[in-house]
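Late entry, evening session. Most of the bench is empty. Finally got around to the prediction I had been postponing all week. Sequence below, unchanged from the version circulated by S.P.
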Amino acid sequence: MQRSLLSVLAGLCLAFSLPAAAQKPPAAYDLKEIMTVRAFDQPVLLEKRTSYDGLLADKVQEGAATRMAGYAQADQAMTQARYPGAQRLGVAELADYRPGAHITMVDRYMIEHAASALGKGWIFAFMPVNFIQATRIKDEAARGVPLVLPGTGKTLSYTFQINLPDNVSGLLDPTTTRYDGDFFTYKQSQQFRGNVARITLELSFRADSVPVGELDKFLAQLQHISQMMGGSFSVPEMWINSNKPGTAANTPGQRMRSSLEKDIAEHSATIARKPEDKQELAQAYWLRGSAHADLQQAELAWADLTQALALQPSTAVYHMTLASIQVRRGQFQAAIEQLEQARLLGYDAYEVAYQRGQTYYQMGQYRRALDDLEPLTISAANMEAQPYARLWYLWTLGPAGLALPDALRQELNADASGAWPRPAYGLFTGISTPEQVLAAADTMQGDERLLSLCEAYFNIGQYYLLKQDRRKAREYFEKTVATGMVMYAEYGNALFELQRLTQTPS
């Protein structure tokens, strides 16, 4: 049986000796690790930002003079256990100190071999050390007493981000998975956008301790989330392009299209050999159908998803995918029914509500769309997707004949200076112009710039629809399509809006 990630990492924690001067620091409530990769065959910069809150922040600050060297040695030992030969750059730094509230320790390393080859792709391992510190049982003797946890309501978070070379371009829409255990809840979100990959883990505790008689249950639940983590992030060959940046073959849109065409060929080969395993065959139909859908080949996509569901009718994600295809075929009510099937089969409630809200919007049932979208604007269930749900909510208010609540307007205005796509909020709250939103998207580098412009154009198109300026709306929806971002929801939705503009009188 494969050992769990956390059990392997806990073993690693015990495998080396900390310097005598080092005291094991308490579990950080937030740990961010950012890798910057200039080229896969060159050393990698790793920046670690370890944050503590509450009284722990004061303890770290107070002990900085006497114990910082020990903390730095401990962190270096842990990092070198993961990456042999890792070299510390400078000294550990303290940042963002707020008495009684927060402090961050910043460590930087140069790593010679941060990734492992995976065929012609690469794989990067990550390690949520703060989770391990908070949950591991030190030795067998400790099994005789309750295991103390960080505390009911306490949440630990871990983020692993990889800034990849300019010749990498991938797309993985934000996805979130969850697990509810007896002692904790676990949430995992990941996305890959342009040449930036990010995975965020959250562990929220539901108890102050684990009774001795329930330690085995606790460890079994840790095993489950360890398998969900996986412990690595892969960069497949198809996302790495050897052409020079700027050439036609190296544009993100062309790479997306080429990747989808390659997927179709591979899954067609699987279907052609007719595997006896129904699950393998159904998955091949689903994956091929998804690729056809991204290429706007709705009829081929529909045929494949119908086959997938005939083989495995209880697979919730197949119903979700079929619902999006039915929208493109104009089968809106059938799409709503498929989403309900996905919900009944246990698909993520946030994702179902988000897609159903979009579907009702496209049906012109704006009040029903808001019934789904409004709760998502304040829900913390999927923070990666929340900004996009908020944008859908904002441009749905107008045709529904409703005003934006003042409290939410103030919150959105405060957030509008944040990370993309939050600057687009200002279009609909009244504090930003299309030119300012385009300028925000234009600050991005490389492929990220074009991906953000695709989203900016679509949002500006929606802005002009609300202004009843059909000519300008058409212009920006056409610009959205011209980016070639076929795998982006904005691309398909822009095509939908262009079709609707054509069909409805001025």
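Two things to note before I forget:
The two ends are 65 Å apart (CA to CA).
Residues 252-272 form the longest helix (21 residues).
Will write this up properly tomorrow.
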